[in-house]
User: Fold these one by one.
Assistant:
Number 1:
Amino acid sequence: MTDSLSTSELAALTARIRACRICVEAPRKATLPHEPRPVLRASATARLLVASQAPGVRVHATGLSFNDASGDRLRQWMGVSRETFYDEAKIAIIPMGFCFPGHDANKGDLPPRPECREAWHDALFQLLPRLECVLAIGRYAQAYHFERLGRPQPKGLRLDEIVRRAPDFRGAGPRIIALPHPSWRNAGWIKRNPWFEAEILPLVRAEVARAIG
Ligand code: SF4
C-alpha cells in the first residue's frame, strides 16, 4: 500500500469512526448514556502507539485524548512534552473504546464498549503499518494488542507480572510494553512496586525516544 493510499484510507476510516453511533442505535446491551463523541488520534506515519482504555469525563468534554491529570502523569512517564505528545504525525493515541462509556454505580468509569473493538479496531490497525512501539495501558488494551501482535499473554498473570516482564515481551516486530493506567487510583500500586519507576520507566523512555526520534 502506498503512503498516499494508506493516508486517504485512514482519513476515510477515521471519519466514519467519528460519525459512529453504534452504541446508541444498535448497542449490544445498555445504550450509551450520552451522545457519542469518539476521541482518537491516528496518522499513517505514527511510529508510537499509546493504546489506552477509554476516554474519561474530562476527555469526553474537551475531545482531546489524555487532556487530564492522567495525561500529565503519562507524559512524565514517557519523558515527552505536551507538544510532542500531541504530534499526531509521530504518536497515535487509540483507546479500546473511543467514547466515554459512562459511570458505574460507584462513580467509577465503566469498561470500554465492546462494540468499538468489534466494529473498528482490526480495520484501523491494518492502516497503521509503521507502528514500532505500543504502550498498552490497562488490561483491555493489553489483551487486544498482545494477541494482535502474536504474543498472547500467559493466562492468569497479574498486572504487576505483566508490567515487570516488559523486557521479555518486546520480541521481534513492534515492541509492546504493558503499563498500569496513569490514574491517581493506581498511586498505591506504584508505591507498592518501586521497581516500576526504577526499572520500567527508563525502558519506556528509551523506547519512546527510539520510536519518535
Ligand atoms: S464507543 Fe465506539 S462503537 Fe460505540 S458509539 Fe463510540 S465509536 Fe461507536
Number 2:
Amino acid sequence: MSLAYGNMPLDRGTNQRKNKRWLSAEFTQDKTLFCLINDGMSLFEKRAVHMPIYLSRTQLPTLTVDSCIYLGKGALGKGTLDKESRSVFAVDFNKLRFSTQQELTEVGQWLGLRKVTATLSAIDASILALAKGLVHWHISHQFCGQCGHANRSVEAGHARRCSDCRNMSFPRTDPAVIMLVEKMFDDGIARCLLGRQASWAKGMYSTLAGFVDPGETLEQAVVREVMEETAIIAETPQYITSQPWPFPASIMLGFTAVATSEKIDISQDDLDDAQWFTREQLADFVVNNSKVEESEESNEPQYKMSSGDSISSYLITAWLNKEIGQY
Ligand SMILES: [Zn+2]
C-alpha cells in the first residue's frame, strides 16, 4: 500500500543541512535542482501530460542559498532527469527578483499540485508536496510569536529566528484523525459511516475526520469527532496507516472504529449530510477527480468518493475489499 505524498526519496540531511559550508557546496553544484512554488502552485511543463519542472541554478542567477529551503538529497528516478543523487531545494517564486520572474514566465505553467497528482510519479508528488508545505510555512511565520518582530529563515529553511528576541520557530505538523466507522446492522449487512460538507462536489462523501485536540489521545479524538459530527457512538479505534498532508500542515492518521449506535444526527456540527453505506452501494461510487462527469440520464448526481490522492479513498476502498475493519 502506498499513499500519495508519502514516497519521499530524498534524505533530508537533518544533521548536515545546519552546516553552512556543506549547504553552500550543495547549493552551488551543477546537478542541484530547484523546485519553485508560486502562491501554492507548482511549475509544470505545458504538455498535456503534466511533468514537473525542476530548475537548475543557471536558470536562477540571482538566487542565494539563504532564500532557499533544503528538501534533501537523493535520486529522483523515473519521471525526472535521471537516477543520479542530487540535492533539491524549494524556492518561493515571489521572492525571486522581478527580472528572474520575467524570464521564467515562458518556461512552464503553474498548477495546483492536487489537480495533477494522479498523473505524477509518486516521488514527484511527495517532493512537490513537501516544497509546498514548507514554502507556506515561511509565508505564514514571517513574524515572531513572542515579540512580533520579523523572523528570518535559518537552518537551511527549517527554522525561523526572530531578529530581535532570537526566539526560534519550527515547522509544525497538525495531527488529524480520519476514520472509517463501521457497523453490522440487524439485517446482517455491514455498513460504513460517511459524511459530506456542503462545499464539496455534488454526491461526494468521505470518511469523517478532525484535528486532534491538545491533551487528547488519537483514540479519544476518533471517538469525540465521530460523536461531534454525527452523534454516533464509536468504540475500539484501530490505527491503520498515516499520510503526510502538507496542505498546509497536517498528517492524516487513519483509523477504523466500530459504531454501537445507529441513528445519525448532524444538527450539532457543520456536516451537510452523513449516511450509512453498504459495500454494494460503495461499489457504485466513482473516485472523484476532475474527469468525473455527472450522470446525464438523471438529475441525481452519482455518489463519488473523495479524491483519489487522499487516505479517505484508501480507507473506503480497503473496507470495501474487506482488507480493514471487523465486518
Ligand atoms: Zn521575537
